[in-house]
Amino acid sequence: MSSSYFIADDLSGALDAAAAFHRAGHLVVIPLAVADWTTAVPDEITGLTTETRNAQPDEAAAAVTAVIARGRKFCARLVYKKIDATLRGPVAAELAAVLGALPGTRLLFAPANPAVRRTVEDGVLLVHGRPVHETEFGRDPVSPVRESRLCGLLAGLPAGALDIPDVTQAADLENAITAQSRRAGDWVAVGSGALARPVAATLPTLNAPPSRALIPSPPPGPVLLLGGSAHAINRRQAARLGASHAVPHHELQPEEPIAAFVTAVASSLQTRGAAIVLAPAERTESATVLDRLTAVATAAIAATGTARVFATGGETARALCAALGVRQLIFEAELEPGLAVARGAGTHGPL
Hints:
It is globular, with a radius of gyration of 21 Å. It starts with a strand and ends with a strand. By secondary structure, it is α/β, with parallel strands linked by helices. The chain contains ten helices and 18 strands. The strands form four sheets. It has a nine-stranded mixed beta sheet with strand order 9-5-10-4-1-3-2-15-16, sandwiched between helices. Strands 12-13-11-14 form a four-stranded parallel beta sheet, with helices on both faces. A three-stranded antiparallel beta sheet has the order 6-7-8, with no helix packed on it. About 35% of the residues lie in helices and about 25% in strands.
């Protein structure tokens, strides 16, 4: 029996997909770089994140090709390609790379997620009943969506390699997977996190060891809450948490010295058992903000022995793992949709 793997274009998507496979009884391991994928065994599902949501098409294609080449080395089968449910990112380039690396493979392309009213009708992706390019996703400042017709989006791909079902309810995703499974030949499911669930259900489960056997439990202690998401709701949630549980807030200012800020955060962790660190309300260059956030977090963790981190923002979580020397994550649980618990080990021990 060959091992299986999936590819996502960011860490949030990889964790979203991992939840579906975990729910189906699989142990999911997420290496954080292609080089960190060092083995593949039948009782594990490997999830790779290419971090290409905002990449140029050629860069994204190269990243996907590299992952598939790594999978071929381990004789692993690509079963699922996670994409953004609103088609943000270089989707066509990544799928062209899949077809180029896996000749003869068919793609079941179903980006819909009916639970949040993202449906495909007559081949058009709709968000709350409107073509996606007419919604706020068409005005995304980094990766605006220009095309709602799925055939138009993928016009450069061989038509015979694509199956694009209409999806208005969850059962349509299950039916599409069932129908595809009955066809002869290799195929890969491509879609939102909702599609991962019926894909996971098609894979046989073995007696996978619990993740606790792979990475020891971190010691008890404080919790660092790192708010790297630019979304306004992130700040509202942090304010509510601070008010209801008296968790100290620390908002990083663009020109504030890092050392003094770290001292304040570490004091909150040691005396109050928790600290909230937020990105500046007035956003500056995102890479600079990310660098400062991770610098604060890693220094505070080193100073206090903190081993539990709650991070919002996929880029923030990925950058923090890199800064802490975490090379892979073991999926632990899904507390609620979009809220995952994972275990890792870094420079300072288990996290």
